[in-house]
What does this fold into?
Amino acid sequence: MKITRRSILGTGLATFMLLTGFSLPAASQEFPNRSIEFIAGYGPGGGHDTMMRSMATIIRQLDISTSPIAVVNKPGGSGASSMGYLNTHKEDGHYLMAVTSSFITTPLSVNVGLSHEDFTPIARLGIDPTILVVGARSSITSLEDIKNADRTLNVAGGGTGGIEHIATLMVSDALGVNLNYVPFQGDGEVTTALLSGQVDFAMINPGAVADFIASGRLNALAITTEERAELFPDMPTFLEKGYNVVAYVFRGLVAPQGISDDSKAWLSDLVAKVQASPEWKTQYLDPNAIVSDYQDSDEFAAYLEETETLYETMLARLGLIGE
It folds into this structure.
């Protein structure tokens, strides 16, 4: 065996690492070096789960990555359980978690010891808008009818402090009227209350009532996006009607805090390729009535800061800020 300076140095380094337990930093290893875990903060079949499984399917279909992907559900605490789980994997880029508006509202309303600042934003993939919808036989046919009502109107929507509640508060401010928000458990109950005349109008996701609008049983007066949504081109925005009401559930992705630049870049590229594919639109966005509104890591980080400020103000007015 020929002994060289290189072999002596190599042997010495190996001996040093063995005796001291020293290892090369993880950043020097190729990423990813094992399977990627997609985390859904709600149970199977929910919005988080659907998004992550759709992504995993498209990644396999298009052969975007050869790394195995496992979708793991961590429900509980309106997203708090999944936040806690991801926080235990700091500096490890092999984890990617779905986030929606509860990523902001839950830490504001309950002291979970974490906030969006404790994670690495990767991308925003889309938004769930809210629409103001009335019954087809309602005397309310315009936003001006709400503005000029001679009584306090009852408004149906999702749970207290949710996006529909926040949107209702914004409508109240924009139109200069008092509104009585009536929370219901789920879109089905909201729709039933509206169709039966229990409430004057509702704030709801358009996908939940699209069939009723198409059949003429409900009328949509305005949508809360900045621009008209491609899926609902006939719905005017509040902005174009002259009212500053922009509120929606965002759908995004975050990784643990402190991941390397290389792993962040890899994850960002993976997500960018998925959302740019035709399959993403046909298999996820359109079937789930999600409006495409992609933001990269830096844009998403800025958006989260702005959204936290808005939500904190609104939840404080509703008396829902946690101690």
Remarks:
- The two ends are 71 Å apart (CA to CA).
- The chain has two domains: 32-127+250-317, 131-241.
